[in-house]
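Holo prediction — guanosine-5'-monophosphate.
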Amino acid sequence: MSSADCIFCKIARNEIPSKKVYEDEDLFAFHDIRPQAAVHFLSVPKQHVASLLDVDASHAALLGKIFTRIGQLARDQGCGEGFRTIVNTGKVGGQEVYHLHVHVIGGSTPLPAMIKW
Ligand code: 5GP
Ligand code: ZN
């Protein structure tokens, strides 16, 4: 999918509304439209990268930015005691939106088991 049709690229361009919790020149974060817990937001690079299967060394600094920022964003959302990050990848991983994003989930104590079979 091209970035023109990508829903998260549209959110990045403010063509689709979202409840943003953070934005800078490289990344943005917004509340998930179908939250799975009291706190559930997505941390997303502005650059269109489809999934972790498409990441290479050229994305290292961008991934570093996303992960160095997440702790503070989670704390700001009331998750100072901890949270879970999930990156669904591809068909097997249950990825729905093919623009790389990190789910940040928390606000419930404790979170349910990591994988439910
Ligand atoms: P995935 O399964 O790809 O890891 O997760 C995609 C997530 O994006 C889902 O949790 C879904 O609820 C969320 N999502 C899909 N479309 C929108 C939207 O238009 N706005 C927001 N805020 N979240 C969305
Ligand atoms: Zn995109």
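READOUT: The chain has two helices and five strands.
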